[in-house]
Automatic annotation (TrEMBL):
Organism of this sequence: Paenibacillus chungangensis
Domain of life the protein comes from: Bacteria
Signal sequence, renumbered to the chain: 1-29
Transmembrane found in the keyword field: no
Protein name: Extracellular solute-binding protein
Length: 451
């Protein structure tokens, strides 16, 4: 069944490539075979290609990692191939197209658990169990994020992120609000309403929620367990109170309090979170820890205000404080690679000693010196004084990871189905109860078709 699904993906991708006239540049690729040199002595080094998001992982960021790896492994050369499509999802589609075209793919980076799960299911990723056993890897002693799917490891976790709230300290002070340390979503909404100011095009909103599925599941992804729309055993979880809470949060902010950037404007004007936050058009937002290195300002945005941090809100006053989603992106060895061992060796280095060398992200490696890494991230910004380290450390130290499953392989279809009903609610075309009922019915059908 898996092989048929992968062949279907390959056939579809080839059709697209023919239509758009894509062409492979593999003719310019360096030699990758361990053949004897002309002198008949040492074999030529193997060249592996590493395809990854070229925005998050710039060539200059990866250069010292590759240089160090090649110094330690002189028989392996690494060629970084940056993917610079419009979005992370488009980068993944590009990987599918390159694979279908026969392009050399050895090691790849996938942006999230959903794309990782799907490529594991359709056969693009090589199971790593044998390579891990050969190395003697004790996985749980090495990594913070579990990547196993039904006992098989198809990838390794790379950069580490946890979700929290970033807040504009000037806007908090203006509204006479304290930096939160333990709060509910109802209190979050009250903060957003208090910091909302003005009318019309110049209106400042108290909060911003982006278009990602994360922002459609705010009341579910802060639950210790059972925190996805469909559970690992294919049980539909839409009746979970956290799902209804997710809709209520967004409905209250958008339709009642009018304290959030309107969803219709976000999608029609293609708004995104960084400009709105740094231009002080939104006072606070839930976001991931990749923003630690950015809120002090950088080449693209200047920080003219101090950012403080708070834990993710809880649904009810009596709930435990600090539960949040902690996740990573994923790197894997492509199943068609002719150099799987070499690719695996590079990815092991990349996900351990390598990532901290970037001085840009926290890593999923348990042996990373997190305190030192935070200092590097903060001090690497243009104005470290704009990053409130005290509230950041409190938030990180008082956050607890939810037990998060690797999503079912068809999660992308589930999320699209749910998001469509959520959007209709946001746009005022159906009630919360109707959105829940319709989402449950349609998701049941998706699950039945994929069992």
């Amino acid at each position: 069944m898996k092989s048929r699904r992968w062949l279907s993906v390959v056939s579809f991708a080839l059709t697209i490539m023919i239509m758009v006239g894509c062409s492979s540049n593999s003719g310019n690729a360096p030699s990758t075979s361990k053949e004897p040199s002309s002198s008949g002595t040492d074999p030529k080094p193997v060249t592996i290609k590493f395809h990854a998001d070229g925005i998050s992982f710039k060539t200059e960021d990866l250069a010292p990692i590759i240089e160090k790896f090649q110094e330690l492994n002189p028989g392996i050369l690494v060629e970084f191939v940056p993917l610079n499509e419009a979005s992370a999802a488009d980068n993944v589609k590009k990987i599918d197209l390159l694979s279908a075209s026969g392009e050399q793919l050895d090691a790849i980076l996938l942006p999230d658990a959903r794309s990782y799960s799907q490529r594991a299911a359709n056969g693009l990723l090589e199971p790593l169990n044998d390579l891990m056993s050969g190395e003697g890897l004790a996985y749980d002693e090495e990594y913070k994020i579990n990547t196993s799917i039904e006992g098989n490891y198809y990838g390794l976790p790379a950069s580490f992120s946890q979700w929290f709230i970033i807040l504009n300290k000037d806007h908090l002070d203006e509204a006479n609000l304290e930096v939160p340390t333990d709060w509910t979503w109802d209190e979050y909404l009250a903060y957003a309403k208090a910091m909302t100011k003005g009318e019309g095009p110049s209106k400042r909103y108290g909060t911003y929620f982006h278009t990602w599925i994360d922002y459609f599941l705010l009341g579910l992804w802060n639950q210790p367990d059972n925190n996805d729309l469909v559970l690992a055993d294919h049980t539909v979880n839409v009746a979970n109170p956290g799902v209804k809470k997710s809709l209520e949060i967004r409905h209250q902010a958008e339709k009642v309090d009018q304290s959030v950037t309107p969803y219709a404007e976000i999608i029609s004007q293609k708004l995104t979170y960084r400009p709105l936050y740094f231009n002080q058009q939104a006072s606070m937002m839930p976001i991931g820890s990749w923003m630690i290195s950015e809120v002090g300002g950088g080449n693209e945005f200047t920080a003219n205000f101090k950012t403080v941090f708070a834990p993710m809100p809880k649904n009810n006053e009596e709930d435990p404080n600090g539960y949040t989603t902690m996740s990573s992106n994923f790197v894997g060895v492509v199943s068609t690679s002719k150099h799987k061992e070499e690719a695996y060796k590079f990815l092991r280095f990349f996900t351990t000693e390598g990532l901290p060398m970037m001085k840009k992200y926290l890593s999923s490696w348990k042996k990373e010196d997190t305190a030192a890494a935070l200092d590097v991230l903060i001090n690497g910004s243009k104005d470290p004084s704009m990053v409130d380290k005290e509230s950041l450390l409190y938030t990180l130290n008082n956050s607890k990871a939810i037990t998060k499953q690797i999503p079912v392989a068809y999660t992308e279809e589930i999320n699209k189905t749910y998001s469509a009903e959520f959007e209709l609610m946001l746009l005022g075309e159906q009630t919360i109860d109707d959105a829940l009922a319709n989402a449950a019915t349609k998701i049941e059908k998706v699950v039945a078709a994929n069992k």
